[in-house]
Amino acid sequence: MHPGKTHQKNIRTTSKYYSFLCTMKVNLVQTIVLMCIIIIAQIHGIQDADGKRIISKYESVQKLYPQPARTETPEWRVADKNMPHPCKRNCVENQPMTCYYYMVVHYDDTMSDTCKRYLQSKYRFNIDGKEFIDSFKIAEQEPANDDCKYADGLESQVMVVNGQLPGQSIEVCFGDTIVADVINSMHETTTIHWHGIHQRLTPHMDGVPHVTQYPIEAGQAFRYRFQVDHVGTNWWHSHTAHQRAFGLAGPLIVRQPPKLNPHVHLYDFDLTEHVIVIQDWVHNFDESVAENILINGVGRNMKKDSKTRPTLYAPFTVIRGGRYRFRVIFNGVSNCPISMSIDKHDLLVISSDGNDIEPVEVQKIMFHGAERYDFVLHANQIIANYWIRVKGYSFCEKNNLHQEAILHYTDSDTQELDTSSISYTYDAPGIMLNELGDDTAGDNAHSISLISLNAKDIEPSMTPDVTYYTSMAAVEMAEGFRFQMDDISFSMPKMSLLQTRNLGIGQFFCNISQQAALGFNCKQRHCKCPNVIQVPSQKNVEMVISSKSVTAHPVHLHGYTFRVVGMGVLGEERISQIEEIDQRTPLPRRGRGAPLKDSVQVPAFGYTIIRFYSDSPGYWMFHCHISTHSENGMAAVVRVGENVEMKMCPVSNCGLCSSVA
Ligand SMILES: *[C@@H]1O[C@H](CO)[C@@H](O)[C@H](O)[C@H]1NC(C)=O
Ligand SMILES: [Cu+2]
Q1: pTM to 2 decimals?
Q2: By C-alpha distance, which of 146, 110, 149, 148 is closest to 13?
Q3: Given ligand 1 and candidates 467, 487, 514, which is best to mutate, with the most ligand atoms within 8 Å of its CB?
């Protein structure tokens, strides 16, 4: 058994003190002992350094929304307080479970009172005049779900689920059914998207406001219920406004029986504590500029001028000799792709966006917003601590944003850290996978391009039935940037497209050909409407997506995984003629076995070509995953098939009525 697993977090309470009082009265009648037990039960909870009871924000919110006994059948699996969820288990074929989650969405703060005891001297240490907090000691001595969101040591308002940053890790097996009651305790609307899940049976559970459901109003609840139809490292996040930038995101890990896992022989451990969530971090709901990067919700404070607190680094413990599956999720918010590396260790990449690939060994991985990569780390170095390094590019480069976490070998000194090489200019040596501006033509000794990866799952040969050319653009105007797809700035429809689909086609949306038919040239005129791209069902669909701007855009298509068959850079002049160029001399497309993804970069003044078989009719969001881009119009909806082909949904649970039935 791995010690990380046995790290039963001690629920530290003042119960010891009270039980001491109890033993003094041991000669008294038993009822007093009973009273003591009752006192212990009441005192049990989160305490500050002096043992004083702290009511966290989540605790007070919880009181407003007591968890109901809402399970419809006894078969539903629910987590008991401070116990692992029963759905997190060794997966066995054909034994699906129904997994219940209670998710209260609420406002909260980083560095609130629940964090103050982290600052006790027993946890602090000093290197070259800089103060650190021993995260290993904290993990051993403080309760795991103590509602402390330390972040970068600065107070900031956040939005979270159940008091946690990042949000709770939902871990299930392929084929399980997830039932999640989302209770909106904020004074604004919300929705949750299950990124990586295809929602083939339940398109109305995709969590896109005004596309697949109505927003969950303030004070209301919504029950998500869907079958888990895609394995791997997935994640959940708010799909409303910029909320995921403020904390509304968490892992959704889907495992499968060892027999079905082609990489099972490559590693010994696949643990919750090796799931890494990285995000660029903003303070106090100002999404306009990332001021830091956080790894699992913590990291060094980057603001030089502010009152600094000791640094808390995220710890990742391994035992020498073990082979560990790491699952990394990048909740990229702003225009900030990141690279990741681990000092002195190779990363054997085995999967991306939940899709297995032939393993490739690299030393660095570039992540574009929403991407996930799984790699195996062989803990074969001398027993010590090693830096896990994350470095931001594009806008994050302007502020020299980087962040670190600790790969800790058991038995090494937890306070021995070499901080001398910590700087933005440090460049990890080795080969990079998925370089920014990836271009197969530019493949060299230092990089491996995404499309040279080979999928484990190879399709029958495929010729596209239909090819779409679609573009992403950020056009600078006097009044600021216009973010567009197909020269249209997406605006949310007032009606929810899926729910109102039978009330009259085309009434609520537009697209580039429809605008042209009306005599509007969107290249000249500012077109702002709900852009819906019509795609026939049961066809091999190809999309040539171009970026007509100086930055790469991470694009995400809901409802499908697609093959990435082409990627390249054409330059500013030629990119606007991509359709003619491709028709004259087809852009290079790779053969069978191209990697499967659900989120991928479109390089600056370049293109990415994707293919998928359109067998899941519905309204599927298709957008840039940079929050400020998509929320300002760099988005579209792919409407697959006709209304009659789309799955019906039970009215009470279809977003028409937003309360938990
Ligand atoms: C635009 O929408 C119309 C329906 O309003 C549809 O017939 C047409 O195929 C769409 N065009 C594109 C490019 O999706
Ligand atoms: Cu973008």
Answers
A1: 0.91
A2: 146
A3: 514
